[in-house]
Amino acid sequence: MNTSASQNLIRQGKLDQLENVMQAGGSFGMRTMDTAIQQLLDARQVTGKEAYKKGINKAKFEHLKDSG
User: Fold this and answer.
1) pLDDT tens digit string along 2-51?
2) Measured between alpha carbons, how far is 66 from 54 in angstroms, rounded to an integer?
């Protein structure tokens, strides 16, 4: 999902702020990769090991890295 806020940040090269805009844009259907992975994990569609491998913020999933 694209919003004017995300467009402006990308245009200005402020990619470090993009995650905050995406989290705030949840009502517009925006979500971060880690949020999507967490949803899949909660639905038991991926394993903890897969979540850790694919996660952006490894610390969020580190406790799961050895689980099948």
Assistant:
1) 889 999 999 999 999 998 999 888 888 889 999 999 999 999 999 999 99
2) 14
pTM here is 0.76
Give the closest residue to 4 by CA, choosing from 25, 26, 23, 19. Answer: 25
Tokens of 18: 């993009």
The DSSP code sequence of 2-68 is: --HHHHHHHHHT-GGGHHHHHHHGGGGT---HHHHHHHHHHTTSS-HHHHHHH-SSHHHHGGGTT--
φ/ψ of residue 66, rounded to 5: -100, 5
Separation CA 6–CA 8 (nearest Å):
5
Q: Do 65 and 52 contact (CB within 8 A), yes or no?
A: yes
